[in-house]
Amino acid sequence: MSYAVPPTRTAAVVRQLRNEIVTGELPPGTLIKDAELASRLGVSITPIREAIAQLSVEGLIDIAPNRTRHVTQVTQKNALELIDVMSVLACAGFEWGVDNLTDTHLDLMRRRQKEFTEALRLGNVLAAGAAGADFSSIVILASGNRELQSMVDLVVARTMRILAMTAESGLWNVWIQGHDEIIALLEGGDTRAALARYRQIYVDYRDRVERELFEDQ
């Protein structure tokens, strides 16, 4: 994930709609209407339809057999399954990349962690999510496997959207504390312990999501 300016109108619409879905501005079940979106975003129908197709691939929009489109509904099952998939992909990338980290990588990880916590302090959930994802991406990309990173990126937006956490959510603390401890372990040269701590983040995160976000299911 990055802060780069999208190169096309379609990419800009994808980013805008993805952000609205992730933050809950477009809640689950919302009916998606091409003309309304085109008017609101000031673009033609074509980039809207292309963006909807992309977001359907990402699992953020459901397209029914009758061609009506809705923001994907949230259930405990798909939330926990996404976390499980994210865990498998991200932990594999972390394991493959952790031994290749340099001082430059560590400096970047410290910077992203600072951006992560600062964005939360300012209430900017999207920036926090991007910085938090970049923290892991630094290690995954150090593995040299860009295909894996592409797969992780695909799941990140879906996971964030399903959780739709506010800046005040205590769930962020699982990542903040975990990242801080991982940096300390890497600074001490203990890559195996850093990997184990990274895996534990997902165990703790899944448990808290199940207990705190889906108590009535």
Q: How would you characterize this protein structure?
A:
It is built from 9 helices and 3 strands, in the order H-E-H-H-E-E-H-H-H-H-H-H. The protein is globular, with a radius of gyration of 18 Å. The two termini are 32 Å apart. Helix 1 (9-23) crosses helix 3 (45-57), helix 1 crosses helix 7 and helix 4 packs antiparallel against helix 7. The relative contact order is 0.13. It has 217 residues and is mainly alpha-helical. The protein has helices at 9-23, 34-41, 45-57, 76-97, 103-121, 125-142, 146-163, 172-187, 191-212, and strands spanning 31-32, 61-63, 69-71. It folds into 2 domains: 9-71, Winged helix-like DNA-binding domain superfamily/Winged helix DNA-binding domain (Arc Repressor Mutant, subunit A); 76-212, GntR ligand-binding domain-like (Four Helix Bundle (Hemerythrin (Met), subunit A), Up-down Bundle). One of its GO terms (molecular function) is DNA-binding transcription factor activity. InterPro entries: GntR_C, TF_FadR/GntR_C, Tscrpt_reg_HTH_GntR, WH-like_DNA-bd_sf, WH_DNA-bd_sf. Residues 7-74 form the HTH gntR-type domain.
Number of strands: 3
Question: Which fold name fills CATH's third level, the topology of the largest domain?
Answer: Four Helix Bundle (Hemerythrin (Met), subunit A)
Per CATH, the class of the largest domain reads Mainly Alpha
Q: Mean pLDDT, nearest integer? A: 87
Q: From the coordinates shown, what is the CATH architecture of the largest domain?
A: Up-down Bundle
Rounded to an integer in angstroms, the radius of gyration calculated over CA atoms is: 18 Å
Taking the alpha carbons of the first and last residues, their distance comes to 32 Å
Q: Please identify the structural class as seen in this structure.
A: mainly alpha
What fraction, in percent, of the residue positions are helical? 55-70%
Protein name: GntR family transcriptional regulator
Organism: Paractinoplanes toevensis
GO molecular function: DNA binding; DNA-binding transcription factor activity
Pfam family, one: FCD
